[in-house]
Amino acid sequence: MESKVKILGHPIYQMLVPLPFGLLAMSAIFDVIYLVLSNPTMLIVSYWMIAAGLVGGLVAAPFGLIDYLSIPSGTRAKSVGMVHGIGNVFVLLFFTGSWLLRHDSPDPSNPNVHYPSVVAFILSFAGFAVAGVTGWLGGELVSRLRVGVDEGAHVDASSSLLGHAANRPAH
Fold it and tell me: How confident is the model at residue 108 (pLDDT cuts 50, 70, 90)?
């Protein structure tokens, strides 16, 4: 099933989603580094990675929803896509909660540093865990269920820049 929203022949959602996924995952990793090393710079990095990841997730979400709505009803892809999408909403909610808790707790001596509460860390790590599951589900949708994949895709397909279906031979 081909994606309904493409640019230069490639699905927009699949191009956008690695950015928020990577930023949010790295924010949790920087939280761990902070917990191990007690370096407040890691909190600044994590704080802004969460902010950027949330923006990226909100930009990617409508494109994912458009592709989800075009999946035929009653298929495994539809149910996997639903869990993937709802899970990603929870990822954004967990990280939003973590970010808001950090935003409200700056260090008076350095307003750039926001010392997270235990709850902020728990939300960050919960978001990281759920993102791992939804990332796997996204891979299942593309790699196993062919959602967002050109119907004629194969190892010798022509370039998407040629503007025709992948099953036509390249010359």
Answer: low
CA distance to 32, 111, 116, per residue, from 40 (Å):
12, 11, 11
Give the pLDDT confidence of 152-167 residue by residue, as tens digits: 777 887 887 777 667 6
Nearest to 100 by CA among 83, 124, 79, 77: 124
DSSP letter assigned to residue 140: I
Q: Provide the mean pLDDT of the chain.
A: 90
Taking a C-beta distance cutoff of 8 angstroms, is the pair 125, 28 a contact? yes
Q: How far apart are CA 77 and CA 3, in angstroms?
A: 13
DSSP three-state, residue 69: helix
Distance CA 164, CA 137 (A): 29
Long-range contacts of 8-13 (CB under 8 A, 24+ apart): 8/160, 8/161, 9/150, 9/159, 9/160, 9/161, 9/163, 10/160, 11/63, 11/67, 11/148, 12/63, 13/60, 13/63, 13/64, 13/66, 13/67, 13/148
Q: Is 4 left (phi over 0), alpha (psi -120 to 50) or beta?
A: alpha
The answer to whether the CB of 152 falls within 8 A of the CB of 165 is yes
* pTM score: 0.87
Q: CB under 8 Å to 74, separation ≥6 — which residues?
A: none
